[in-house]
Amino acid sequence: MVNIREEIAKILVKHIDGMELADIVQLVEVPADTSHGDYAFPCFKLAKIMRKAPPMIAAELAEKISGEPLFEKVEQINAFLNMFISKEFFTKAVLEEVLGAGNGFGRSDEGAGKTVIVEFSSPNIAKPFHIGHIRTTVIGNSLYKLFDFLGYKVVRMNHLGDYGTQFGKIIAAYRRWGNREEVEANPISTLLAMYVRFHEEEKNDPALTEEAREAFAALERGEKAEKDLWQWIRDESLKEFRRVYDMMDIDFDDWSGESFYTDKMPAVIEELKAKGLLKESQGAQIVDLEPFGLTPAIITKSDGTSIYLTRDLASAIYRKNTYDFSKSIYVVASQQDLHFKQLFKVLELMGYEWAKDCVHVNFGMVSLPEGTLSTRKGRVVFLEDVLKTAVSKTRDIVTEKGVNADLIDETSKTVGIGAVMFNELSSGRIKDYVFDWNEILNFDGETGPYVQYTHARCASVLRNAAAKYGAAAMDAAAVEKADLSAVQSPAAYELTKLIYAFPAAVKDAADKYEPSVVTRHTIKVAQAFNKFYHDEHILVDDPAERSAKLMLTAAAMQTIKNGLGLLGIKAPERM
Ligand code: ARG
After folding, report:
1. Farthest-apart Cα atoms in the chain, separation
2. Domains defined along the chain, listed by start
3. What is the pLDDT of residues 505-551, one digit of tens each?
4. What lines the ligand 1 site, CB under 6 Å?
């Protein structure tokens, strides 16, 4: 995409001695007040070089550059050069770019040759995949899409919670009360029920505690019976998780999980020891982080068992050695802020300079109107049920709206699941929020359905045009022939400006690890298109005028599609 600030600087540099192009680019600004132009250039810094008063310099520059086709008008006001970009030039550049790039509009190659790891979702085996997991899953998936779009090689990791003393309990419980068929028919809820029962009965039956301890010890020693059981529980849980991922069209490149790192931990513990970082504290091995204002990092517990943090250390080192990442991203709730501060600090103390490339992308909590979530009390809302509810509620809405019968199935899925995902990505990730069906499924709000509907509306305008006037070419050569003065009204121009700003929004979202930047921008494009659509008549008789309007429609549609794509959401052509 033509970079307007750079184009301006290229013109200015010809008339300014003693200042580099890059410095001029830095100085070009966008005035808050649009009556001062689309761009402005302050001349204060030139006073010294040119030995003249800034207003005089601005006046001279205004005169020298005003004939350039890039500008509609150039004015001097005090020390400022105020530039109004030629709408013709701008509109042409934007339409040519978007129609030329298509699905690649907004893409870049800034990440070429670099690898980014995005670890996300990471639910715990044998535990419910619940509504609390939705944010990491959807935000992580979007970050994967964003970095991929920017040319990085991205490795999607699901760091499954598939290890820990709780597996001793699950195995013990299963041996007492479980049976294969029941688990296979309904893995998670059966295993969960057994786990809950274990906790209840353990209080009065110390033998259970002992059985669990023994089972876990056997698992750690790698005994076949326990390993097989564990593997089976893992496989059954994964089947259930995959079903949910499939509903959202989400996949991973690496499913290793915590268990994968158990045999890599002794080396880490040795290394910590060798580097003089380990200290004994009440039988446990710790790294003292007090000088950094953090509580101690516990590396091994007093009973010798390793813990979560140690597995994360092993995993971080493994990731670096295996993928040589330029960034390793962990999409995990803010509840674990301390854990990641400890993890990154210990890596730094171990002398790994790449610790600075590890990023904890945290986020706030989801709660339900009926109260916060609690696995212990059995108040679990399964993510799968939420997605199914979304589909069925959407079905009711679209049926009432009179959607074509043969589109109802498809639309309810695309829109229902898209709505839930979009909602997760609409506000800054750090904010806590309350899950509210009315908001999520509001077709007129700033929602997934609204944006998808706008996309389908663009598609329908283009279909109608093709039916009435025949298929029209949508490429740079056609832009040349169209009457672009027809798309310079305030509504059209606003839309064009938002389309132009899309690639920058994509980059900003990745820089901040904040997909909501793309979400917000995509909503704005959809709103601007709808304003254009309502204000103006698109299918006019004049071919050159109609063609320009259809191209703007196609460009808006492409931008919305690419935006939704980066959020992991489908863009339906019909609804
Ligand atoms: N399984 C953990 C949980 O559900 C999340 C894992 C986060 N990732 C990590 N590398 N520690 O809380």
Report:
1. 92
2. 4-85 (3.30.1360.70), 115-262+315-372 (3.40.50.620), 384-566 (1.10.730.10)
3. 999 999 999 999 999 999 999 999 999 999 999 999 999 999 999 99
4. 119, 122-124, 159, 161, 312, 330, 332
